[in-house]
Specification:
This protein is mainly alpha-helical. The chain has one domain.
Length: about 190
Amino acid sequence: MDYVLYAVIAYLLGSIPFALIVGKIGYKMDVREHGSGNLGATNAFRVLGKKAGSIVVLADILKGTVATLIPLLFDADVYRLIIGLFAVLGHTYPLFARFKGGKAVATSGGIILGISPLLFVVMVLSFLSSLYITKYVSLSSMITGIVTIIVSIILWDIGLMIIVTTLSIFVFYRHKDNIKRIKNKTEPKITWM
């Protein structure tokens, strides 16, 4: 019964569409009608700017983190990584935004932050390094997934390996259109200051 309760809570947390909320409240804009139309942090950065994008990425990360920490607060006997998966499902298929959400990257990172802060730091460094080199947010997200799988294998935590691999496969799946655009050289690159 605990799994059902915490899974529902995690899904509802994940369903909070922060890109939509920040866009509508702060900018009177629906980000779904601009840029990629995605409710993730990357589209928020592109459409709303750095300040709004930063708020969205932090909020999306925290959705995953809070989802993994709530069972800990109540001393629930559940595997918190599994509960975190439901926050990712909520983020990508949000109840509060007609089941069209983000691409699972920030919320997946938030799950890892709630379980292994050191691994989260590795993920952030991997993402930023990849982004600096490639200038592709999507490619950097996928590279970070691969790096995270490798680190989880080195740590030899079977549960972590399974969940990280599942999340990485899901991130690749959610970026299938980006992969096509990268191959066609039509994927937008970021510009540094």
